[in-house]
Amino acid sequence: MSSPRYAELQVTSHFSFLRGASSCDELFAQAALLGIEALAVVDRNSLAGVVRAHEAAKTTGVRLVVGCRLDFADGMSLLVYPKDRAAYGRLCRLLSLGKSRGGKGLCHLEWADVVAYGEGLIAVLLPDAADDNYAMQLRRLRDVFGTNAYVALTLRRRPNDQLRIHELANLATQMRVPSVVTNDVLFHHPARRVLQDVVSCIRHNITIDDAGFRRERHADRHLKPPEEIHRLFSHYPDALGRTVAIAEQCRFSLEELAYQYPEEKTMPGLTAQQALQKLTWEGATRRYPEGVPDKVVGLLKHELGLIETLRYAPCDRLATMTSLPLKENVSVNVTNTICTNLARIITTATKRPKWKGTSNQRLARSVRSIKRSRAATRGGALSLLIGSSPQST
To answer: What are phi and psi of 318, to 5 degrees?
Structure first.
């Protein structure tokens, strides 16, 4: 018989300051031992933990579901997970908006904000009790998120807990909002409960003797094996199955992100790359009026190719150089310095040994070599040519 499948969709890391008591490394290592397929790190109003979680996921093989918990000004809370790169961008803008309003350490969000930025997000409502307020929240959630709307079923280990879960699930079914199981994890192992109590006391500025019910009321908020989760929620098999289904829908990965330089139109009608190429060859022609040497042509083509491959043309440094007027008068000393630096780069390029390895490895080595050459000469061949002239005053 195959083991039951389960993805934990509500995990708080220690990046939720004074709430979570375990690091991402500990959480993902424990999940791998327990056989959990995926973890969703949902820190409060923050994506601060997703980078460490991404690294831990690559190490352990447990898939990361990127997300966060949104706490609204009216007391409503949602778990949200971007399904793609565009949705992740909108979530970042939403959090930036809330933090700009709230000030240091706070995040002020209204329901209208998530309506504006909620496209492409899966939303899971975190309800308290099956009352009129819960029904209103379900209606709002369904109207905005449609088939991407869910409600969380989470044990709290309090009196009438099973009755509460039953009522929440029934009302969600009546409102045509599917339910999904979460465990609301705060630490990776039961032994970490003591540390979790300590950080709770620090958050409330009290001693452990005076904490009372401000501590977590049970030691159950740790990662559990899928078999245990299926036993606890045996009456809700569909809600258990949706944990894996949601995780499979959220395929966004931090691997999709790369730094994007801001676009700056320096020449009307030309892209940044085209403008850079135009100024480069114009500068080379002025530098070598009798013809550009083959070695220099090869070096320039090589650098331009790297810049195009890495999409560096719009970067601030190149954009600034291309926006400056070309200098017609350069002193003899400056000209000699330019010639010396250019010769040094060409010499470095011609003496470079033939590289071995895959094309990606060769490209990476080439990029590092160009960077070292530029650092040694305070600029590469392009920076020596653009905006300079061999004419003396």
So the answer is: -70, -40
- On whether both 200 and 328 belong to a single domain, the answer is no
Q: Which two tokens stand for residue 229?
A: 């989760």
* Under 8 Å between Cβ of 152 and 79: yes
User: Could you tell me if 236 and 372 lie in one domain?
Assistant: no
pLDDT by position in tens, the chain (length 393): 578 999 999 999 999 988 999 999 999 999 999 999 999 999 999 999 999 999 999 999 999 999 999 999 999 999 999 999 999 999 999 999 999 999 888 999 999 999 999 999 999 999 988 999 999 999 999 999 999 999 999 998 888 889 999 999 999 999 999 999 999 999 999 999 999 899 999 998 999 888 888 887 777 899 999 999 999 999 999 999 999 999 999 999 999 987 766 666 667 888 888 888 888 898 899 999 999 999 999 999 998 888 888 877 776 344 445 444 444 333 334 434 444 444 444 444 444 444 455 555 555 565 555 555 545 444 455 555 555 444 433
The helix (H) or strand (E) run that includes residue 10 is strand 8-11
Give the Cβ contact number of residue 137 at 10 Å.
25
Last residue of one domain, picked from the residues 209, 225, 256: 256
Retrieve residue 73's tokens: 């000004």
Q: Is 291 left (phi over 0), alpha (psi -120 to 50) or beta?
A: left
Whether residue 181 sits in one domain with residue 313? no
CATH no. for residue 205?
3.20.20.140
Asked if residue 369 is part of any domain, the answer here is: yes
Sheet-wide strand order for 121-125:
68-71, 77-82, 121-125, 149-153, 179-181
C-beta of residue 77 within 8 angstroms of C-beta of residue 70: yes
